[in-house]
Amino acid sequence: MSQSQPDGEHVGEPHSGDGAVYVSPPTRSGRRLIVVAASLAALLVGAVAVDRIAAARAESRTAEAFQDGMGTADRPSVHVSGFPMLTQLAEGRLDHVDLTAHDIPANGTTRPLPVTKLTVGMDGLKTSGNADEAHARSVRAAAHLSYADVSSALGVEVSQGDEPGRVNATASLPIVGDVTMSAAVSAASGNRIAFTAARAEQGELLPPLKALLDKALDEPIPLRSVPDGLHLRSVTTTEDGIDARFTGRSVTFRPDSPSA
């Protein structure tokens, strides 16, 4: 007499002397849970994709606005943090934005010193009723100034000094020759870099050369290729330039600012 097999799915090979192993198919409720889980996963993946598209658009718009304001040849790189992005955009704010710009050009007397690299971290960035203006709750920034650009702005050759926090300034005149002075670099009021405690390092400090160096080093040089509302906190000398660090609270970015 034949026997009917249990209603199930055969798994593997039967063992010698043993019955075959079967596993029951998912019940109706189990299948429903699988469908629900798959649907939720698809919705989550779709939501993340849409949110990432929104973030990319926010980054692109921010980069374009800063490029227009700074006058850079290349568009700055921008990274917007936080999730979900759609909620932030609906509320007209961005939790955190990191921006890096290169080669911010000088602009005559209003912006006498170019910036080789500017990195800006902004918290609580909000757009106002004016689409061209944005406001950040707090900002940290760092600007790197190459010695070549500092030299062009001052009219003398500037290089790293023999001691930390100092630079060498060399003036040259035909027939008269060269003379090098060392000066300490510090942050001055009004977002300016001051050169103080100057002393002769090499060469004879003849009157024409002294006049050149005095003119170059006596007046602090302003840093205006940074957003309004930032305050210069410190400057340090490096092998290839000067690093300036800024902080600011309640900072407004607009195209007509001196830094733009």
Beta-strand share of residues: 35-45%
> Which strand order does the major sheet show?
3-4-5-6-13-12
Question: In total, how many beta strands?
Answer: 13
Biggest sheet statistics? 6 strands, antiparallel
Number of helices: 4
Q: What sequence of helices (H) and strands (E) makes up the elements?
A: EEHEHEEEHEEEEHEEE
Low-confidence stretches: 39-47
Radius of gyration: 32 Å
- What structural class results from the helix and strand content? alpha+beta
Q: Tell me, rounded to a whole number, the average pLDDT.
A: 77
Descriptive overview:
With about 260 residues, the protein is α+β, with helices and mostly antiparallel strands. The chain has helices at about 30-70, 85-90, 145-155, 205-220, and strands spanning about 10, 20-25, 75-80, 95-105, 115-125, 135-145, 155-160, 165-175, 175-190, 190-200, 220, 230-235, 240-255. It has a six-stranded antiparallel sheet with strand order 3-4-5-6-13-12. Strands 7-8-9-10-11 form a five-stranded antiparallel sheet. The longest helix is centred in the first third of the chain and has 43 residues, at about 30-70. The radius of gyration is 32 Å and the shape is elongated.
